[in-house]
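Archive transcription. Copying these from loose printouts into the bound notebook so they stop getting lost. Printout 1 of 2:
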Amino acid sequence: MIGSSCSDGYLKIYLKGQETMDAYDKFDHELCGEEAEPTSMVSDGPRLLMVFSSGELMGRGFKANYTFETGKFIPNEQF
């Protein structure tokens, strides 16, 4: 499920630096359950935080793919 309250096990995505303000209840996306639709998420800044909780129930787990792109969307970035 996306954007709903997960009862057990989740992956929460933070795109706006909420962790710097200890605002972990203000996540941008929450994925859980068997109905989670594959989706693409792009951070519009230099940070993205993923918080995974396996929960208490035995399940099949999560599978995710991610990539890092540098220099494409961040102005004045030097590597």
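Printout 2 of 2:
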Amino acid sequence: MAYGSAIAVIQSLQYRHEFVSPRAWKKEMGLSKDKNASLGMAMRLWPALSLRKKDDGIAEALLLAEWLRIGEWSRTGMR
């Protein structure tokens, strides 16, 4: 229910949004479906966060945001 509610809010506010599969963004980041690899990359990018094995979801959320940030810069020149 929370996912559907979030989508409804985004659409009602007419925010630009894009759906992307984990396979697509992970491929562009050089990752596989291995959560340990995602965790390792996040730990290298953000060493101050002290991510633990159980934080793999947080790591993937950070990497997805980084993928979006990098992609926006390369597609639109936004900073």
